[in-house]
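Q: For a teaching handout, I want to show students what a protein-ligand complex looks like in token form. Below are the inputs, and the small molecule is beta-D-fucopyranose. Please produce the holo structure.
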Amino acid sequence: MSPHSVYPALSSHCFPRDFIWGVATAAPQIEGAAFLDGKSASTWDAFCRVPGKVLNGDTLDVACDHYHRYEEDFDLLVKLGIRHYRLSIAWPRICPDGDHRVNQAGLAFYHRVFDALASRGITPWVTLYHWDLPQCLEEQGGWRNRAVVKAFASYADIVVRAFAGKVKNWITLNEISCFTRMAYGTGRKAPGLCEPEQVVNQTYHHALLCHGEGVRAVREHGGLAAKVGLTDNPSIPVPVSTSEQDISAAAEAFGEDNIRVLDPIHHGHYTERYRRLTGKNGAACEKDDFSLISLPTDFLGLNIYWGYFVRASCNGTVERMDFPASYPRTSSPWHALVPQALHWGPRFVHGLYAPKEILITEHGAGYDDDVIVDGEIKDLHRRDCLRTYLREMLDTIDAGVPVKGYFLWSLLDNFEWQDGYLRRFGIVHNDFNTQRRTPKLSAEWYAAVIAANRLQ
Ligand code: FCB
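A: Here is the structure, written as tokens, with beta-D-fucopyranose included.
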């Protein structure tokens, strides 16, 4: 008897035929060449030089040296059968002065990148902004100053015009809350400030306007086939049971958590709930702001790593549950493993806002102990994490939620922001001394999932 008749394939583990499988990266985390060919400093180049802000004083100066090794990295994509690649463009490489002046060498680099992808049959998904604000703009107030909107609009026009012939899929901004609240409110990310709540809400508002300018730029210059959307990282409450009460409690918490980004983009105004929760600290708006902010998009990108559990308490309120100390996590303290987030996140988004398509633009797992033993990295922990989350995503698709693609974070171990190079998220190991790339076991597993279009 053949082993296949004893262990028949599980057909429910199949993904839809045209499912988009990719990996994601971001310019500041992999490129290096931080001051080469006319690029100016970003807020992260400045922040990593402030003692104590980034682990071990790590800098982005060299990172994965992708600036010089992109051909080799794209060969890896081919080897793994990965046909979709999410990358970001470094704003300070294109507009080092933060204004309309263009650094041609910066454009030339991304032309080389897109040509190298095209020659390998790989589709680029391009994020306009993944946290690397030109430092010169930060010195004028950064995201606190409404002038950032004009600067971003000009940058977006330049980029979309330059690459319209080579790029069809655009993402305006990555994770607004990380470069607003975490950068100006909690001080964890560049520029590391702790401003009052009204200022933080204002940074969100400026980011929403920039998102709108990104959509406008793509509609104006991107060509008919161009698609555009935002990538958000909503906070995801997961009902602790599937009782109607717990699901409603989670839906209620989801609505409350996402008043600053998803609500205004989809509803075209700040809701009553926003006004109630922010009070006198709400953002100041101008007359036509929301027609720009709520321009229609083609998809919504979701970065989903974690969630938290909620339940309906007996007095009818929503109980947000803490994680016990023994709850499983990755090496990132913030990263409790909640695979159901990949089910309930898209489900709530679909129910509340019904975007045309949902893409999981990031999901992954960071660990500090991915070591090479006899030439191999047996990261069973990462493989298991990815697999468990993907099973949940399959359920979501089966439930009729239009999740059209998944981008694994990340292709390579890279600069993990305030955690420097300690925390490894790659499915390909990078030796930061030699820049030698070694695919981990999880890369081979992911390649097999893509090839079969089903969970392995
Ligand atoms: C996300 C970021 C991405 C990466 C992962 C681990 O919040 O978008 O750049 O650092 O976390």
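A: Two things your students might notice: The longest helix spans residues 197-221. Residues 3-452 form a domain with the TIM Barrel fold (CATH 3.20.20.80).
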